[in-house]
From TrEMBL:
Highest taxon above the source species: Bacteria
UniProt EC number: 1.14.13.-
Family statement: Belongs to the FAD-binding monooxygenase family.
Pfam families assigned to the protein according to its UniProt record, in alphabetical order: FMO-like
Matches recorded under SUPFAM superfamilies: FAD/NAD(P)-binding domain
Protein name per UniProt: NAD(P)/FAD-dependent oxidoreductase
Annotated GO MF terms: oxidoreductase activity
Keyword Oxidoreductase set for record: yes
Keywords of the record: FAD, Flavoprotein, Monooxygenase, NADP, Oxidoreductase
């Protein structure tokens, strides 16, 4: 069609998830021509790919949504306290219909690279797939998410496996039926912890291969409370504002007390109270020093371990499930529905890979150092090349042909997590160096999209063709991001925030720990000062 034949735009956006959809909407509002390129067959991004059984957001439904459409937030009916993947996907599909976004999205189209043509002042974007070929645009916006490139386990033999296998982050659209099957699950992060109880419901047996146990808090999920819905709807503007001003992007008051300044009894009582809310953020914000003081953290960690010991019948299994390698909250803590309880069922077995390491996948199943586990199906809940996987997976080249992957060889550098020196007119929504995954992503995304839209509006109204981060500002922000994390216990965990889950990845803390509220102030000040730290040129 004439539409798909078009190759020149003001803006090319990569990705049609939460970020890309809203970016497109704002760009239209500015009167800019824009196209969104998306590998998947549908909108949704993370919520399109992660359709494994039990996939659910750990931010409450009423807060994990767009605020830009006040009528939508009044109308949309969430059914559960925490939204499931199908419901979030339905919501994003609805947003796409409601704002007529699909006509500017090209599905089944993967961006393989983008090159900044200095003479023309334009990005040349190469694509593969349905609408392959090259597109050109004045601006390139990556909306590729933070957890989008699935990571395979570093074990040989997967290709020899005779059964079916799936990665949680690239789950097929068709229903996967595990009934009567012997299922193995490798990985016990958020995805594995959500999936295991669901699979255990149908499968003949479930074998969970655990390398590092993680902390998990029960969600106490259920039908959404109509009184809560009414209250939030009545107060949405104020509640959204509180979320934006907060640390984690959810409207919770910041903790004022140290865990060490109250008595052990008082701590126990208060932690139980927070635990009963079914929110990991409530537990993490019980005290103000859980992520900075090892002793304070130990109190919370021991509290969670006690809860595991309470639930799991077999004391030996309970001890294997108790995390000890890293402080509570320094790897992304999980939220579950019946995870620990599942290990009380006879057909569910926990294999401790610390004791008996994973050696290979065989035609018949999974071999650990002491045994071959026969399986009909295998689930890889082994995580993602987080923060940079999707971004650096594209061959992006800036001035002088510099490759972004080379620039980020020792870890990503970025000004505000939004822009990179040497890469004019490139914006990265929730890029490395922004608070992104350390907060409610919906809040982080809206703030970034709105900031980028305002920057583009400024450029248009001042007749500015190019915007580029200064190397000095970029270096200063990158140092600030790393120093902020250095003062926390986050550095003690082999987390994906640090790239530690991917062999060979530089060990650098890639997320800004300062909180969304503080971060928004910094971004707003930069804009108010005429885009301080950026070079603007006609
Ligand atoms: P995570 O949190 O990165 O978890 C991946 C899990 O897979 C974790 O338990 C890993 O153990 C395990 N893993 C990875 N590679 C291997 C190998 N080779 N052998 C054994 N076990 C392995 O990913 P998720 O998808 O669960 O969650 C990602 C984020 O999505 C989550 O944090 C939320 O923000 C939403 P390890 O800890 O490396 O020993």
């Amino acid at each position: 069609t004439a539409r798909t034949a078009r190759t020149t735009y003001d803006v090319v956006v990569v990705g049609a998830g939460f970020s890309g959809l809203y970016m497109l909407h704002r760009l239209r509002g500015l009167g800019l021509s824009a196209v969104v390129l998306e590998t998947g067959e549908d909108v949704g991004g993370t919520w399109y790919w992660n359709r494994y059984p039990g996939a659910r957001c750990d931010v409450e439904s009423m807060h994990y949504s767009y605020s830009f459409d006040p009528e939508l937030e009044q109308e949309w009916e969430w059914t559960e306290k925490y939204p499931s993947q199908p419901e979030i996907h339905a919501y994003l599909r609805h947003v796409a219909e409601r704002h007529d976004l699909r006509r500017d999205i090209r599905f089944r189209t993967t961006v393989t690279g983008a090159r900044f043509d200095e003479a023309a002042g334009r990005w040349r974007v190469s694509t593969e797939g349905e609408t392959g070929g090259e597109l050109e645009a004045r601006f390139l916006v990556t909306a590729v998410g933070c957890l989008s490139t699935p990571k395979q386990p570093e074990v040989p033999g997967l290709e020899t496996f005779r059964g079916e296998w799936y990665h949680t982050g690239a789950w097929p659209e068709e229903h996967v039926d595990f009934s009567g099957k012997r299922v193995g699950v490798i990985g016990t992060g958020s995805s594995g912890i959500q999936l295991v109880p669901e699979v255990a419901r149908d499968a003949a047996s479930v074998t969970v291969f655990q390398r590092t146990p993680n902390f998990s808090v029960p969600t106490r999920n259920g039908p959404i409370d109509p009184d809560l819905v009414a209250h939030v709807r009545e107060n949405y503007p104020q509640i959204r504002q509180e979320a934006r001003r907060s640390g984690f992007g959810v409207p919770l008051p910041p903790p004022e007390r140290s865990a060490l300044e109250v008595s052990a009894e008082e701590r126990e009582r208060y932690l139980h109270e927070q635990w009963s809310k079914g929110s990991v953020t409530a537990v993490l914000t019980s005290y103000n020093d859980l992520l900075v003081d090892a002793d304070a953290n130990h109190v919370a960690a021991e509290f969670v371990r006690d809860r595991i010991r309470e639930v799991v019948d077999d004391p030996e299994v309970a001890e294997v499930l108790c995390p000890r390698d890293f402080p509570f909250g320094t790897k992304r803590p999980c939220m579950d529905t019946g995870y620990y309880e599942t290990f009380n069922e006879d057909h569910v077995r926990l294999v401790d890979l610390r004791r008996t390491p994973l050696e290979s996948v065989t035609p018949a199943g999974v071999r650990t150092s002491d045994e071959e586990h026969e399986l009909d199906a295998l689930v890889l809940a082994t995580g993602f090349d987080a923060m940079t996987g999707a971004l650096l997976g594209m061959d992006i080249r800036g001035r002088d042909g510099q490759r972004l992957a080379d620039k980020c060889r020792d870890g990503p550098t970025s000004y505000l997590g939004l822009a990179m020196a040497g890469f004019p007119n490139l914006f990265t929504i929730t890029g490395p160096g922004s608070p992104s995954v350390l907060s409610n992503m919906a809040v982080a995304i809206e703030q970034h999209v709105e900031w980028i839209a305002a920057a583009l509006e400024h450029l248009e109204s001042t007749g500015t063709a190019l915007i580029e981060a200064d190397p000095a500002s970029e270096a200063e922000w990158t140092d600030h991001v790393r120093e902020s994390a250095a003062g926390t216990l986050h550095m003690e965990a082999n987390s994906w925030y640090l790239g530690a889950n991917v062999p060979g990845k530089p060990r650098v803390f890639m997320v800004y720990v300062g909180g969304v509220g503080v971060y928004q102030d910094v971004c707003d000040e930069v804009a108010a000062a005429g885009y301080k730290g950026f070079e603007l040129s006609a």
